[in-house]
Amino acid sequence: MIRKLYPYTRGYRALICFGILCSAAEAVLEMLLPRVMALVVDQGIPSGNTDYILKMGGLMVVMSVASMALGVGAAFLAAIAGQGFGANLRQAQYDHIQAFSFRNIEKFSTASLITRLTNDVNAMQMTVTMGMRLLVRAPVMLVSALVLSVTISLRLSKVFLVVIPLLVLLAVLLIRHVGPLFRQLQERTDDLNLVVQEDLSAIRVVKSFVREDYEREKFQKRNRALRSISEKAFGFVTLGMPAMMLITYGTIIAVMWYGAPLVNSGELLVGDLSSLYTYITQILMSLMMISMIMMMLSRSIACAKRIVEVLEEVPDITDDSAEEAAEVTDGSINFDHVSFKYSEKSEEWNLFDIDLHIKSGMTVGILGATGSAKSTLVQLIPRLYEANHGTVRVGGRPVGDYTTQHLRDACAMVLQKNTLFSGTIRENLLWGNENASEAEIKAACAAACADEFISRLPEGYDTDLGQGGVNVSGGQKQRLCIARALLKKPKVLILDDSTSAVDTATDAKIRQAFATQLPDTTKLIIAQRITSIMDADLIVVMDDGRVMDTGTHAELMERSEIYRDVYQSQQEGVELHG
Amino acid sequence: MAKHGPMHGPGPGGYQRPQNMGKTIRRLLGYLSRAKFLLVIVALCLLLSSACTVAGTFMLKPLTNNYILPGDIPGLGKMLCLLAAVYIAGALCSYIYARIMVRISQSTTETIRRDLFSKMQDLPLSYFDAHTHGELMSRYTNDIETISEVLNNGLGAIVSGSLTFIGVVVMMIVMSPLLFLVTVFTLLLMLLVVMTVGKRSRRYFAQQQKNIGIVNGYIEEMIEGQKVIKVFNHEDKAKEGFRSRNEDYRRAATAAQAFATSMMPLLGNLSHINYALTCGVGALLAIVGGFDLGSLVSYLGYTRQVSQPVAQVSQQVNNLLAAVAGAERIFEVMDTEPERDKGQVTLVHASIDSNGVHRESAGRSDGWAWKKPDGTLIPLTGDVRFHDVDFRYVPEKQILHNISLYAKPGQKIAFVGSTGAGKTTITNLINRFYEIEDGTITYDGIDIQDIAKEGLRRSLGIVLQDTHLFTGTIADNIRYGKLNATDEEIRAAARLANADTFIRHLPNGYDTCITGDGGSLSQGERQLLNIARAAVADPPVLILDEATSSIDTRTERLIEKGMDRLMRSRTVFVIAHRLSTVRNAKAILVLEQGEVIERGDHDDLISQKGKYYQLYTGQAELS
After folding, report:
1. Is residue B243 part of a domain?
2. Do β-strands A522-526 and A363-368 pair in parallel, antiparallel, or remain unpaired?
3. Which of B71, B133, B286 sits opposite A201 (nearest CB)?
């Protein structure tokens, strides 16, 4: 885990080393203090040498001030390194996600990616900031306290031979036992939060089905489970402190007992004995600190694992097979016996044996029931997903031959669930082509019939859309998304049910604009409304992942039952005034 | 909309201050008072364990002076046994109080969580409109968590820290008032550090929080729009935008963390300075006389002990304040006015006997009736009327004005109009999601204010455009409409909603688990499930609010046939963007800016050549 995350300390390694040195020096100085104290008590006081006492006292103050400076320095270095590491990690993860294909994104789910980028990284940087100090201090203190104790009295130090294994055993037992408890605690907390989250988003459903009591019960069940596990986990942790206390005090008593004869015989001085108490406390404290760090680490390891999972996810659509220079020359599209499924494991094909040939410049309508895989079909064209069998060709070459950059620049797509970003209308439109001139922007908006409503807005193209484009209506949003796609001047334009909220007259106007302004662009239109695709050069009727029939309106009216059905379902009443 | 809430609220620094401390603390104590007896034990244990700590250190002096130095080994043995007893007692007491506090804190937080969630179920929808989910979620994830943490460790630490501090100070003064002056000096220094560094650190923390918010907001927006980013080759731009925000956050966080983490070495080393000064001055005093070696050793022991509680308490006080602020926010939710529900008329099953008299019955296959408080039954027919209804969500904006309409039993009533015209609002008023400002709404002649909400809502099946699914199997989700529905009923409902086919195509059919609000299902499929859920509930009146907006017209027609069977002779309200959906309604109401501008069936409205005609012929657009 550490090896995998190590690269992200880039730029902060010197600081980390320096910080570790500072922390170590601070700890050593701290450990030496009681030794100087012992000198004062054992040599200064009995001889009555005030100069010596003043000198040693002064030395102690200087040591403390120096250790303070080192400590503060270490804290600053730890903060810089920890936050820097976190920033690196966040950026690396975010950059890596940019290379993800749709399938990669779906594998993790959007919500989980967000948690990994936010909470998990924050937890990691906290671990580094805190850990850099504690992780260094504890072992350094442990070792130097041990060494100093041995130099004071080798014989008395033998108590550590009993105490330390005892303590280590205790710590291991605790951590072993507590680890799984805390994992369970986390799971049950997630469980509880999920119920709250779902209750909040579905509050209208809850209220309209009068399921308040049902939800209460559901919550209370998890609430009780959470309580029982947290009582267990935290209750267990409380054992640690008194146990450590007892061992510490036991050791001090043992040292006194064995030390008293030594003091008496003059082998050991009182000051030494007293500094020995201090070291005992320090040794045990640092062992406790180490076990605490271990617990903290076991929590952050879970976070680290989740982050590494993202970093190690291999983007499944890459430019490996692409020719850098290959450009899409025309808008012809060919599906050669293409089959596709979203999940390798699933038995059913989402698309099966699609054989479809579209000439450059054609207008193609795609029609089919909910779940008939219309969107799936068109998403194979800009290689948002990769076909399992068969080949998808654009401009005569397999889509994998182009870099995704070139391919997607040539194939513009307006997604069904389309997103506008916070910023102005102009900023959003420039996504299509960042160098677009004012005239080009206006032309695209005119073609998408977005110009008239934009001009009605008080700030026109500079109107702020707010997050997710909340300041415009559904139909307006769809027209902006079309304009954004038009700015790419694509060879292939795909509209995935993109005019559902636009009225029929405007819809017709947009299609008219396509026909006159984009004669060479291949236009694929998925629509629910039959009028949107009726006059297409080719209409593809899909059902359950298969192409059922292709042809013009007239041909399909004649031979396709599905098509006729759809037509009829939308025509009733039209004759009244038509 | 749904806000996943990464990191709302305070970080570990707890920089916020509660508004009304006294009142909130009293109320929190109210929760604690359920464990009065246990709290008394905790207090006793705390007192004892602090006394033991102080006594243990105090005994070092006689041990050194009277036993170790003179070499009185048998006496030493006795004293050490005594010391061991004191230490064991101390450890035992501190274990007991910590263990009891865990119990108290966990049962208290369980109760608070229960009360909070329970209360949340009673809140009116307007409350959920005004607060984001992230905000409400953070009541559970942050605020309750801080309270639990403080009860677990903080409270005990503050009390025992203060007690130990007082005990140690008293002992120090008794032992040597002169040396204590040295200690007072450093203690004041510590206080100064805590205040000044703390103040700066709080300021930087506020900046850090702000930047966390910006970075998290950007992450949410970009990751949610990731597919659009891919389609537009916008990856590099997105990286760049993130880089600058990430960098700003790094800077702010570095400052905040640097100050927060320097607190520990600052306080720790100040205590060492104290130790050094005391040692020097103490040694001089020992030479001058009047201070013996044992006292010095023992006093130095206290010196180490006196600063520990200062650091401990100053840290915990911050946590305590954060917890009180959290409790304040929780109580604010609990104190919110719940939905008004004074209605006394209840919904019962009823059957008609041969004399045409309605009788209450248990059977579900029978009809429904309203039962008045005096016991009279009024058959439920689904006659809904609005009389001059005015309504506004917020005082500044009138949404509905003078709306009067009627739906006769068994009629299909459709609402047509632009977004914001008030279609959904009208249906939200029928089931009393919101309270009207003026006018009356009657249901089978009864003012809906007089109907108990439970009965009112059970009588209305609502299918919303925004589909919400719960974690669980597909069958569980349909069963939400009728908790005791059999598998066969569920299948029948799914078939009626035309959802059966796609469900059977799923890996585990009806037992397929849905997670994350059913993100793997298409919007159309989710809507089909929604309809099945309402169908299994089998309500006397149905409201379809854009329920088929993502379903193709052919499937919609199939559903309609099923629905017609289900809704035979029942009242249905339909809201739809797609005019083909509402065409066969008995009455179509065209709404504009909160007023009904046209009413009639399809043919009437077409011949009126009004707004509906324009919409239908594509001359106008619904926005």
Report:
1. yes
2. parallel
3. B133
d(CA B138, CA A431) in angstroms, rounded, equals: 35
Does the CB of B26 have a partner CB in chain A at under 8 Å?
A: no
Best B104, B107, B141, B553 member to test A by mutation, with max A CBs in 10 Å, is B553
Which residue is it, tokens 């009116």? Answer: B124
Q: Is the pLDDT of residue A576 over 50?
A: no
Q: Is A206 exposed, middle or buried (0-12, 13-18, 19+ CB in 10 A)?
A: buried
Report whether pLDDT(A570) > 80: no
Architecture of domain A333-572: 3-Layer(aba) Sandwich (3.40)
Name the fold adopted by A1-140+299-316. Answer: ABC transporter transmembrane region fold (1.20.1560)
A37 touches chain B (CB under 8 A): yes
Does residue B91 sit in the same domain as residue B193? no
- Taking the Cβ of residue B45 and every Cβ of chain A, the question of whether any pair is shorter than 8 Å is answered with no
- Are the CB atoms for A502 and A479 separated by under 8 Å? yes
- Decide if pLDDT at A109 tops 70: yes
Domain that holds residue B184: 177-290
SS3 A505: helix
Query: Using one digit for the tens of pLDDT, what is the confidence trace for B39-81?
Result: 899 999 989 988 888 888 778 778 877 888 787 888 888 888 9
What proportion of chain A, given as a percentage, has pLDDT over 70? Answer: 98
Query: Would you tell me the crossing angle of helices B155-175 and B293-334 to the nearest 10 degrees?
Result: 150
Asked whether A232 and A181 are in contact (CB, 8 A), the reply is: yes
Q: What is the pTM of this model?
A: 0.77
% of chain B with per-residue pLDDT over 90: 17
- Claim to verify: residue B194 and residue B156 sit in the same structural domain: no
Question: Which residues from B are below 8 Å from A102, CB to CB?
Answer: 227, 230
- B5 in a structural domain: no
The alpha carbon of residue A359 is apart from the nearest alpha carbon of chain B, in Å, by 22
Q: What does the pLDDT read at residue A245?
A: 81
Give the pLDDT confidence of A442-458 residue by residue, as tens digits: 999 999 999 988 888 88
Any B CB within 8 A of A133 CB: yes
The answer to whether A432 contacts chain B (CB < 8 Å) is yes
- The residue-averaged pLDDT of A511-534 equals 88
In this structure, are B207 and B159 located in the same domain? no
The answer to whether A155 and A261 are in contact (CB under 8 A) is no
Q: So what's the ipTM on this one? A: 0.83
Residues B51 and B148 in one domain: yes
Q: Do the two domains A1-140+299-316 and A333-572 of this chain adopt the same fold?
A: no
